[in-house]
């Protein structure tokens, strides 16, 4: 039986953090939003990362199924990406005139992403989803934006909900929320608000939290595409989370349609801080007209890292390889769960699996399972999809299944 | 930012709704109602209607004002809220002969409640008072959450994301409350933790109180393991958004 991890140094660091940082660790990496149940089962700070592993302050090693919530796609510290970044760093990063590596990166994206005629760079996913909405409004001179419930498009006020702290009615006054996969509701919405809808924004499939992830229904995207074109509405795909893990040409390409605007971040540069909005030619002039930039948005090192990352993803045919790894993980986990009488559901794309033990609607059993896995060095999270990376080996999957086996056994013994 | 109708529901079911518990917890309050057999109905046009029934030394709150021996009508939620604030004096439409109860019993009763709910540091230094005050606050907050979830436009957004099932909020070795969510409407209910879909637990009265008083941050407390959350955490997440609104309404 594997010894369970303990985290005294993480706890100590969290106490320090709580004194000087709001929430200690805020956002999705923090224990509250990250749903660390119980908190004692989880590390709170890392000391280093390599390949598919990260190590916490107490020296515990974790097989990392969160991949920093997506950016780690090739493996932490991938040598090819690091070498490209180091080469560029020696030449210059944040400079008065941008490096031409920016052009190289844009050209590579236009060559790679099926629906891209141009690329615009920023730092975070939120930067480019916000730009997409501004751009759609500028182009159409309309106000309303359609969302599909369960969405996450960042943290700017327009992406948040009326009941969130700091949000006022005007921030979300033009948001329309529809159920995922309900193309008929979208059609009705276009009828109700003729000439008023600037954009429909959506993730390529529903990878919301606390619920099984849901793929698009047959013909859904084609109907959405048709309705947007018919009504002069911009179709925005938020591919920040799934981008490049499903299809190097974009998740719209994977599902057989073309977005007008598509947002990338996470897997774009293997952890280097860059995001990209790619778009169709007819929106390029309007994109030029926006007042939209940032101090570090044209830094060269992340561009060099992004180029190396995309080239390597192409060489390795990343979507196929992640799919294969994800399949081994899914099959192994489901079989192991079944052995102990648990009904484990694995939904969403295989490269971004969402786990849920369906026996217990309160999710307590699921949370207990996840905690036992984390204590034994497999970093799963409770209610968010996971991420597969290319550095994950068959040995890592085997170790994961062994840990899951032990975790399920512990649960059964506890219930007896 | 406060909706007067939602505030009237909070005042009726969370604030006045705490009087039954007050009468069980506090000897002075219990003594005030000991031999009383009277009912006070509050009827708010465009808002709630409920009756506090005092009988055999106990107090209960029931919906509606039918049969109330004293009836206090209010022409608007604002007027009712004014009575709770002490800026409006109600005039009974029925029960003039029982007006002495209002002046000599009911008013002192609400005075005791106010002392517990707006406690001074000096009062809170008494451990018995501290426990009673915190117990009442927990009850009032739960009541306010339910009313805001159903009537406050912003909180209704949060309630719209709460899946069906009970939510447990409790203090270890202390009081607890539960809320039932059905079709995005919330109600205070009497459920144990094992019958709840999600839970939020405080280790002791002190931690709960510090959170109620806004002296500590809930997210940090979760990180430190001082507040335990689990189960269907999306319920707790949305409950916390309504708790923010409770703070706004009860401020």
Account of the 3D structure:
By secondary structure, chain A is of the alpha/beta class. Chain A folds into two domains: 8-64 and 318-415, Aspartate Aminotransferase, domain 1 (Alpha-Beta Complex), CATH 3.90.1150; 79-316, Aspartate Aminotransferase, domain 2 (3-Layer(aba) Sandwich), CATH 3.40.640.10. Chain A has 13 helices and 13 strands. The mean pLDDT of chain A is 97. Chain B has two domains: 4-118, 2-Layer Sandwich (Nonspecific Lipid-transfer Protein, Chain A); 122-250, 2-Layer Sandwich (Nonspecific Lipid-transfer Protein, Chain A), CATH 3.30.1050.10. Helix content of chain B is 49%, strand content 21%. In chain B, the strands form two sheets. In chain B, strands 7-6-5-8-9 form a five-stranded mixed β-sheet. Chain B has a four-stranded mixed β-sheet with strand order 3-2-1-4. The mean pLDDT of chain B is 95.
Order of helices and strands of chain A: HEEEHHEHEHEHEHEHEEHHHEEHEH
CATH class of the largest domain in chain B: Alpha Beta
Decide which structural class fits the backbone of chain A: alpha/beta
Describe the largest sheet of chain A. Answer: 7 strands, mixed
Radius of gyration of chain B: 18 Å
Extract low-pLDDT stretches of chain A: none
**Unreliable sequence segments of chain B:** none
Proper CATH architecture of the largest domain in chain A: 3-Layer(aba) Sandwich
How many distinct beta strands of chain B? 9
CATH topology call of the largest domain in chain A: Aspartate Aminotransferase, domain 2
Query: Remind me, CATH topology of the largest domain in chain B?
Result: Nonspecific Lipid-transfer Protein, Chain A
Report the strand count of chain A: 13
- How many structural domains are formed by the residues of chain B? 2
Rg of chain A from C-alpha positions?
22 Å
Mind summarizing the main beta sheet of chain B?
5 strands, mixed
Strand line-up across the major sheet of chain B: 7-6-5-8-9
Mean of all residue-level pLDDT scores of chain B = 95
Say which CATH homologous superfamily of the largest domain in chain B is assigned.
SCP2 sterol-binding domain
Give the H and E element order of chain B: HHHEEEEHHHHHEEEEHHEH
